[in-house]
Description:
This protein has 341 residues and is of the alpha/beta class. Helix content is 32%, strand content 25%. It contains ten helices and 16 strands. The strands form two sheets. It has a ten-stranded mixed β-sheet with strand order 14-13-12-11-7-10-9-8-15-16, covered by helices on one side. It has a six-stranded parallel β-sheet with strand order 3-2-1-4-5-6, with helices on both faces. α1 crosses α9, α4 (78-90) packs parallel to α5 and α8 packs across α10.
Amino acid sequence: MRNGKYGCAVWGCGWVASGHINAYLKHPACEIVGLGSRSLASVEAKQREFGLQCRVYDDFDQILNDPSVDIISICTPNNQHASEAIRAAQAGKHIFVEKPMVIKADDIPVMLDAAASNRVRSLVAFILRFKPLVKLQKKLVSEGELGKVFMANVDYWFGRERKGWMKHKEQTGGAFILAGCHSVDMARYILDSDIVEVTAANAMVGDYYEYPPVETAQVKFANGALGVFTCSLVGDVPYTANLSILGEYGTIVNDQFYLRRFAGQKNFFTLDTGTKQSGDVYDHPFPEMVEHLIECIREDKESPHNLQSAVNSHLACIAICTSAQQNGRKIVIEGSRLLYP
């Protein structure tokens, strides 16, 4: 920290990095000290976009060894997140890591140990947790407004063009790992209940992706609720993140609510929380997320949205991809382990 500001560096200067950069620029306690990428052209593009004069890194070690860097945003391809987050933690840097934080379950305990051992604060970019609508849905469930919840279904559909590394299985991990993890985490977060069983299927649609871009799963939560999850990276469909929650005393379908407490209610009513269905990084709540991370660093407290909080969501997505590849084999999630009964 210098002159009352935290030094922030962004590693990986692709599409999502703009959301991180924009958020740091908006926070009065943050200063962007550098941008990095293996492609200097992408760094220069971000400098032009935001009018930045800052350090340029073409090697991750340069960021780790820079004493002016307090916080690192990791915005690289999926398969690099784990090793980079581990190294950042070992270097004593606070971490804001893009989802997914891992694409392999074996990396999870190593990452958690590195963060804990070096007392760094972490935040995983599960943006939906910071949306006002999701906060309201979670509040209603936690306060018992729906009674016992017995079903939670989610969909992640977004047929946008994804260039470069996102088409490759070894760099991506799979459809749910790449993108549907947002919706998986939303369901788990709102219910405050881990996913404990997964059975999945997939479909190869088109020839752009090296892996099936369509995945579906039947899941079971620790509280007994059941769910059907779907993810599609293809199709003529805008960004769509559906959520349906059914309980004994009420039902939520996205921003529509049907609650027993309102006697005589004939149909769903809609609440406008200002939440926008958008896949644009500028519509994501990155500024609120950076504000939260800075608060955790200042107060030396763990975030409820840290690496540990995201473990079950990641294991569920890995299990979905694995189950689908193994013709719908049931996979059990027990703590930080995947079991194959």
